[in-house]
Write a structure and sequence with these properties.
By secondary structure, the chain is α/β, with parallel strands linked by helices. It is 51% helix and 16% strand. The chain has ten helices and eight strands. A five-stranded parallel β-sheet has the order 2-6-1-7-8. Strands 3-4-5 form a three-stranded antiparallel β-sheet. Strand 3 and strand 4 form a beta hairpin. The radius of gyration is 17 Å and the shape is globular.
């Protein structure tokens, strides 16, 4: 049995924060699938240029895959965390910038890119980390990447609560008008992610759905850790 916990959910549902803390408490590794998409987006912008695609169009998939293999773009296990690297450089901070955020959804919608990223994630887990245990978070981990994961979690919360949390994390004033605008944006993204043709956002049939609207981060982490200890007992 592979030792993988798949944590999925919509934007701002707390997937990465929960996954990282669960991994620490279990002394497992943590893999954030979004980091690899972002690392490849950064590599594309730096090497192919944002002009490598016209507005609303994709970068050519063969160019992207070739670039990813040549540089390379990869996940490297540092301690207990899989870190994204581009040409041997740690890009964890660089991939969180606005220019990557603007374009990552375009790149992540390309089928060949999703296939490449999924392959890299499976390779990363197919080793010592996988034997010890890996917590992987994303939007299609339990449905596409690791459908055989023994424990699948789908985190959710109302758009209003997710908007409030996101604004708080950004350090912005959490007033009603801002929360309303952000929650509308999140609801629109939920609809787009749930209806996309490739790997739509949805809970796996055997996933445990956890509504975190009224939970603190500590409470949802404790809940997932308890589920993991029950599932992987012995």
């Amino acid at each position: 049995m592979i030792k993988v916990i798949a944590i999925d959910g919509p934007a701002a549902s707390g997937k990465s924060s929960t996954a990282a803390r669960v991994a620490r408490q279990l002394e497992w590794a943590h893999l954030d699938s979004g980091a690899l998409y972002r690392a490849l987006t950064l590599a594309a912008i730096d090497n192919l240029g944002e002009g490598g695609r016209r507005k609303g169009e994709e970068w050519p998939a063969p160019q992207l895959i070739d670039l990813a293999e040549r540089l390379p773009v990869r996940l490297v296990l540092i301690g207990d965390v899989f870190k994204p690297e581009v040409a041997g450089a740690d890009v964890e901070e660089a991939i969180r910038g606005e220019r990557v955020t603007r374009s990552v959804s375009v790149l992540a919608a390309i089928p060949d890119v999703r296939t490449w990223v999924n392959t890299q994630q499976r390779r990363a887990v197919d080793g010592d980390a996988g034997r010890r245990g890996v917590v992987v978070d994303g939007r299609d981990i339990g449905t596409v990447v690791f459908p055989e994961a023994p424990l699948k979690i789908f985190l959710t919360a109302t758009p209003h609560e997710r908007a409030r949390r996101r604004l708080f994390q950004r350090g912005q004033a959490v007033d009603l008008e801002l929360v309303k605008r952000e929650s509308q944006a999140l609801a629109a993204r939920d609809a787009a992610d749930s209806n996309r043709r490739i790997a739509p956002l949805r809970a796996a049939e055997d996933a445990v759905v956890v509504d975190t609207t009224t939970l603190t981060l500590e409470q949802q982490v404790a809940h997932v850790v308890e589920l993991a200890r029950q599932r992987f007992r012995g």
